Amino acid sequence: MLTIANIRDYIKTIGIGENFYAGKLDNKRDKSIGIYQRPDYSKANIAIGGLDTTRTQIKEISILVHWNENSNETEAAAQSIYDALLIATDVTINDQPVKYIALMMPEPVDVGTDDKGVYERVIWADFYYEED
């Protein structure tokens, strides 16, 4: 099983950010990265042939880049994370081989500022991984 905490730990290895969270962005410190699961209620990921033939699962996540009061710096930080995911190969997270990371938007999306004026961007990614 691949969890959002596992993905948070992987995102840490990219080297962008100072504070990392899974499920909730506590205290909203500058230069924070939050990992959230995106709900997809449309389908279960079961291959033709049933569970016995299903080998790959999908973890659909949203990465919130909560950076600082400078929109350019926020954009650059988010783009660096996006680019690292875009070129990632031979990824293993929590002993699960990740076969593909699909970026679901053409670039990090600007979602404005929070109530303190800190700029934020969002990246949607689907992690296709082999189940044990």
CATH class, anyone? Alpha Beta
- Low-confidence runs of at least 5 consecutive residues: none
Helical/strand content category: alpha+beta
CATH architecture descriptor text: 2-Layer Sandwich
Number of strands: 7
Q: Termini separation (Å)?
A: 8 Å
Percent helix range: 10-25%
N-to-C series of helices and strands:
HEEEHEEEE
Strand content: 35-45%
- What is the number of helical segments per DSSP (H or I, 4+ residues)? 2
Characterise this structure:
It is built from 2 helices and 7 strands, in the order αβββαββββ. The protein is an alpha+beta fold. The chain has one domain: 2-Layer Sandwich (STM4215-like). Strands 1, 2, 3, 4, 5, 6 and 7 form a 7-stranded mixed beta sheet that branches. Strand 6 and strand 7 form a beta hairpin. The chain is elongated, with a radius of gyration of 15 Å. It starts with a helix and ends with a strand. The mean pLDDT is 92.
Question: What attributes does this structure have?
Answer:
STM4215-like; about 35% strand; 2 helices; elongated; about 20% helix; about 130 residues; seven-stranded mixed β-sheet; 7 strands; alpha+beta
List the helices and strands and how they pair.
Blueprint: H1 4-12, E1 19-22, E2 32-37, E3 56-66, H2 71-86, E4 91-93, E5 96-103, E6 109-113, E7 119-130
